[in-house]
Amino acid sequence: MELDRISSLPNEVTEKILSRLPLKEAVRTSILSTTWRYKSEMLQDLVFDDRCVSTQSHPTCSFVNIVDHVLLLHTGPIRKFKLSRRDELATRDMDRWILHLSRNPVIKEMILEIWKGNPYSVPSCLFSCQDIIYLELYRCLLNRPRSTFKGFRSLKTLDLENVTIIQDVFENLIDCSPLLEILYLRNCDGFTNLKIDAPKLWFIYIKGVFEDVNLAKTSNLAQVSIHLNVKVDQRRGPGSSGNFLKFFDHQPHIQRLTINRNFLKYLFIGALPEKLPKPCQYMNFLSVNISFDDSDEISTVLCLLSSSPALRELEILVDPEKGHAAMGEVKSCLYDNYDCTHTQLRLVKITKISCVKAQLDFIKFLLLSSPVLEKMTVQPASVDGFSKLLKDLLLFKRDSKRAEIMVLDP
């Protein structure tokens, strides 16, 4: 008897079809034909989320029963396991699943997203998954691994959000991941001094409360995004050299940098040079959150600009003014101590501008020092002063004959 088209599909095709379906739908394909009956039991990517169950499901089809059933009947390797359930899950159930997965020697991706209830204390058996390449944890407690743990020797991406982990456990985790390339660290607690030793790391995103940021042993970083949630006056005093020099001296390959106001303040601590002795030769994109009410922040941004000869794109997000700094001080900072032409700068975007003099002086300065500028986009914070801003911008001189200024609606 001739097989139908569905039954005669090559294995690699059926695997691709199943991998693109929600797990519930993938299991239902077992009724298509006899050759498909056990296909779903060999799925390599298992994603357990809210799509696995419906509100009308029978009690025997609960989320926990579905996960148990799939793992029990599963044959072959599991490449990816994702658990993301919006309802609260019992710790004993999650422990059972992680233990089962730890016995699978080839699992490559592990994603645990705990949306409800207490943060999940990840069992030590997770550290037995030596071949993990991608690890993502949300609302978890990461405890000290067993002494036999030698690290995730294949880990390339680590994503921790709202994770509690103490200082030495975090540093050991990073140190014992020699292939780590991508790191997300968002709103984690348990330590306040961030020290990372990851020579192959090229991407990092940091958001949280840290008193110190030490990336001295990450000299291959190309994309950096740092958002500190701590005021500068909460920090310890500067060391023998300024934070600006200490940070950028070890980052020669940065191409894209995104930072917020608190990190600007952190960089300003200690001696701030007019420009770096060794400029950021590869940095072509800079995004900064700044208050033009703070001359320290402006000085730090100017130092970044003067130290980035390859900069092509600049984004400025203006924080609301609090009381307007002395305009003489700001003007001197802009014009008297800064003499540099942005020979590669082509695109500038400034948002939430409130049209005060310090901000307009900065725009005027960029227009006069950017000979190849192509477009400057300006977005006011409100409609107040909108028409005046248009008139002022039209009158500003430009070093670039091709420079186009666009003013967006607030």
Portion in beta strands: 15-25%
Q: Outline the biggest β-sheet.
A: 14 strands, parallel
Shape: elongated
* H and E string: HHEHEHEEEEEHEEEEEHEHEHEHEHEHE
Question: How do you describe this structure in short?
Answer:
The protein is an alpha/beta fold and 410 residues long.
Report on this structure:
The protein is an alpha/beta fold and 410 residues long. Residues 29-33 and 323-329 have low confidence and may be disordered. The chain contains 11 helices and 18 strands.
Features:
about 400 residues, alpha/beta, 14-stranded parallel β-sheet, two-stranded parallel ribbon, 11 helices
What layout of secondary structure does this protein have?
Layout: H1 11-19, H2 23-28, E1 45-49, H3 63-73, E2 80-85, H4 91-102, E3 109-114, E4 120-122, E5 134-138, E6 140-142, E7 157-161, H5 167-175, E8 182-186, E9 193-197, E10 203-208, E11 212-217, E12 223-228, H6 243-248, E13 256-259, H7 261-268, E14 285-290, H8 295-306, E15 313-318, H9 327-336, E16 347-353, H10 357-368, E17 375-380, H11 386-395, E18 404-407
Parallel strand pairs: 1-2, 2-3, 3-5, 4-6, 5-7, 7-8, 8-10, 9-11, 10-12, 12-13, 13-14, 14-15, 15-16, 16-17, 17-18
Helix pairs in contact: 7-8, 8-9, 9-10
